[in-house]
Structures are given as C-alpha cells and as structure tokens.
Amino acid sequence: MDYISTRGSAPALDFADATLAGLASDGGLYVPRTWPKFSEAEIAAMVGLPYAQLAQRIMQPFVGDCLTPERLLELTTQAYGRFAHQAVTPLVQLDQQHWLLELFHGPTLAFKDVALQLLGLLFEEFLGRSDRNLTIVGATSGDTGSAAIDAVAGRAKVDIFMLHPRGRVSDVQRRQMTTVLAPNVHNIAIEGSFDDAQAMVKRMFNDAAMTDRFAIGAVNSINWARLMAQIVYYFAAALQLGAPARKVAFSVPTGNFGDVFAGYVAAQMGLPIERLIVATNVNDILHRALSTGDYSQSTVTPTAAPSMDIQVSSNFERLLFDVGGRDGLALAEQMRGFESTRAMQLTNAQREGAAALFTSARADADEMMKAIRWAHVETGQVIDPHTAIGLHAAQTAGIDPAVPVVTLATAHAAKFRDAVEQATGVRPSLPLRVGDLFDREERLVQLPGDYAAVADYVAEHASPKV
Ligand SMILES: Cc1ncc(COP(=O)(O)O)c(C=O)c1O
Ligand SMILES: N[C@@H](CCOP(=O)(O)O)C(=O)O
C-alpha cells in the first residue's frame, strides 16, 4: 500500500515513511491510494476476535509489508495491554436503540489513547531502522497532548513539543501533560486558540529553515496512522451489534474530523454503516459545511467541551479529496482559496458525496447539559460534555428506530469534573490509574501566539535529524 497527498504533488510514500512524515510536503494529508475492502464473509469471520487481533486484521492492509502480521500483532497486543478494560473499547447499552462506545479506558482517559499508544510503538519501530531523530510538534485542545506525551515520554530518538491554548483546557487535561517531566517532553502554552496552535504546527512542516535541520513529525490526526488505528473500534462495535448482517449508525463528537473520518474509512472497507452523525458544539463549521455547503471559519467560542473548540477541521480535507473525485491539484487550489479568505463553498460533488453517509447536528450549552443529565437520571451513566454532544445528536438525528445508534464516548467524565458536577450534582472522581495528578510538579513554558517564538523555542531544544 502506498500513500498519496490530498494536494497531488508530494511524492507517494509507503506506510512507514508516511507515519514518520506526518504531513505531506505539499501541505496536503496522506491517504491510502485505494481503500482496502473486506468481503461480507471476511467481516463475519471477525466476530468474537480479541481487540488486539481484530486491530491487526483491519490494519494489516494499510501497513502492507512495512510490518509482518506477527510483528503488527505484537505491537497491537502491547498497545492495548495498557487499557484498563479487557474489551479495550466496551459497549454499554443506554436504551432500546442507543449505545455508548467507551473509548476512554486508556492511560490518559480519552479516545486518543487508542491510536497514540500504537503510534508511540510505531515510531520506535520505524526509527529503530534508521539513524533519524524525530521532532514531534503537536497542537492540542486538551486530549491529544496527554495521550501523545504518555505514548512517547522517555523514548529514544524522539522529542515532543506540545502546544496548547493557554487557559482553554481543563485543569486535569493540563496537568496530564505538564506533570510529565521526562527530558524529551516540552509543553508550550500559547496565547490564542487551538486553531492558532494547529496553524503553527502545519506551518513548521513547510518551513525549510526547520525541516532542513529537524525531521518534524506529527501526532495529530493529520498523521494517517492515527486514523488507521481509530477505524478498528467502528468494526468492534458494529460486529457486536450484528454486522455484517445488520447496519449500525454512529454519532461522533467532532472537532478535527479525524474520528468520524475513521468511520467513513470503515464504511469504504465494507462495514455496513447506516449513517455517520457529525456532532458539534457551537463551534459548528462542520455542521454548517455539511448542511449548507458553506465552510467558513469564525472565531472560536470557548465551551464546556473544550476539546471540540475547533473551527478549522484538518481531516475534512481528506473527505473533500475522496468524495470530490480525488483530484489533488484541484483540491490544492480550493484549499489555497480557503487559506487566504478563511471561507470556501463545497462543490456539488463534495456536497452530494458527503450527504450520502453523513448527517450533522449542533448542540448548544443547554442541550449538552440536558444530555448529561438525561444519561445520569435515565441510565445511571455519568458522561462527559463531548460525549453528551454526541448523544444529543444521536437522539435528534431521526435515525430509523430499528437501527442501533452508537455514540462514541470520547472522554472520561473526570476530565471535565466542573461541567459534569454542574449538570448532575455528582463530581466524578479520577480513576486510580492517573495517580496523584494534583500533587505533582508542573513544567511548561508560556509563549505568545507567534510562530517565530515557537519555532525558535523548538530549534533551541530539539535534536537535529541525524
Ligand atoms: C474528548 C474529545 N471528543 C471529541 C473530539 C473530536 O475528535 P476529532 O478531532 O477527531 O473530530 C476530541 C478532539 O479532537 C476530543 O478530545
Ligand atoms: N481534540 C483534540 C484536538 C486535536 O485533534 P487531533 O485528533 O487532530 O489530534 C485534542 O484534544 O487535542
């Protein structure tokens, strides 16, 4: 399998090189040249497999001969061995039609662990075959940061620089990053929003002054390997609910469009998915784009679901590429227009292609709080604000009552204790696996929302590429 850029002019790479490269050199995102397909019989044969085996089976076609099946299975077994639930991503039934897919049983309590625990091992594996040092530069609205830091802290040949918007992540999220004191971990609080941080990260990949000296790598979902690992839990959930004989719908709390794009890929691979519901908070660029075709950026509004306070959704580009006929040069032109005007209109092909599988919904603060309360009172489940936005969308999307709807529970409620307590009167306690988070020393630097300041800081602290 080789990987091509959504903007049509970067060289094609194999899986190992695409994983280390992160973003393509033309500013595009890597996607597999074709979607691997499973037949109905092949999907039926996956029923009952333990998670690590299922993960190996689903990911092998993407990995190609960069890892043998035996080696990939060793890595998935190691990655998912750190999860606190044997099922890794268990399903919980809420009522006759609705389920939660709990994705927060990893070390840092959010769905990001599912991909990043594996990605840390993939970096180690592929860097071990070269003399390269990797300088990871990432942006986080709260959850990617801690999951990535946990995955690479203390690993040889990797430095990580993680940018978060100062004051816009929860105290638990911040401490999960800043209390990791390994020498290869650098936390940077910047003035501005997640979008500002993400823009600086992307700019660094195309800054020759940086890329000449450092091998810049990505842990955000711009890195294809992140999405690949997230495809697996769509299969895991659907297989438990009757796939391939029965269709399932998924409601996905969405910000950077990575998680829900993984669901789209699962559908391309043959998993029978009825609908993918894109659930946003009031930062609703995706809801507007999918419902009206207008993808225009507005100012980010801070909410009680801060990890979704995003107005430029990196992975939407992957969808536009795929449903728009895979014309990289045309998409590059369209994206250049967006980058200069902060607005773009989807083409008819892009709108129709997206509408075939995606529905969208937006939840405001009241609707989010009501969903947290409903889950608590009616089902006894304490859910986090991001999951609540997904649940609100699941309950209002008008899916045929005969079709099971799975809401992705993307974070543990204890990461957002204030909002959850306000909605339910219950203050969720931190699971034992995060330990004495509030007694640990914090280490971070604060920088202005200025690219030059961040690039200088990285250049001063990173190891040269060889
Ligand atoms: C808890 C939580 N839910 C949902 C999302 C949205 O996921 P995505 O960015 O993949 O759309 C994020 C962050 O991205 C998150 O941290
Ligand atoms: N919500 C994310 C934002 C970054 O998204 P990613 O999936 O592209 O890494 C976060 O918590 O940091």
UniProtKB/TrEMBL annotation:
Question: Where would I find the Tryptophan synthase beta chain-like PALP domain in this sequence?
Answer: 85-329
Question: What GO terms in the biological process aspect are recorded for it?
Answer: threonine biosynthetic process
**Cofactors (names):** pyridoxal 5'-phosphate
List each copy of the Threonine synthase N-terminal domain by range.
3-80
Pfam families, from UniProt? Answer: PALP, THR4_C, Thr_synth_N
List the CDD domains: Thr-synth_2 (cd01560)
The EC number on file is 4.2.3.1
The pathway is:
Amino-acid biosynthesis; L-threonine biosynthesis; L-threonine from L-aspartate: step 5/5
Residues modified as N6-(pyridoxal phosphate)lysine are K112
The record's listing under SUPFAM superfamilies reads: Tryptophan synthase beta subunit-like PLP-dependent enzymes (SSF53686)
The catalytic activity, as recorded, is: O-phospho-L-homoserine + H2O = L-threonine + phosphate
Q: Which terms are listed as keywords in the entry?
A: Amino-acid biosynthesis, Lyase, Pyridoxal phosphate, Threonine biosynthesis
What would you give as a GO molecular function for this chain, any one? threonine synthase activity
Family membership: Belongs to the threonine synthase family.
Q: Which protein is depicted?
A: Threonine synthase
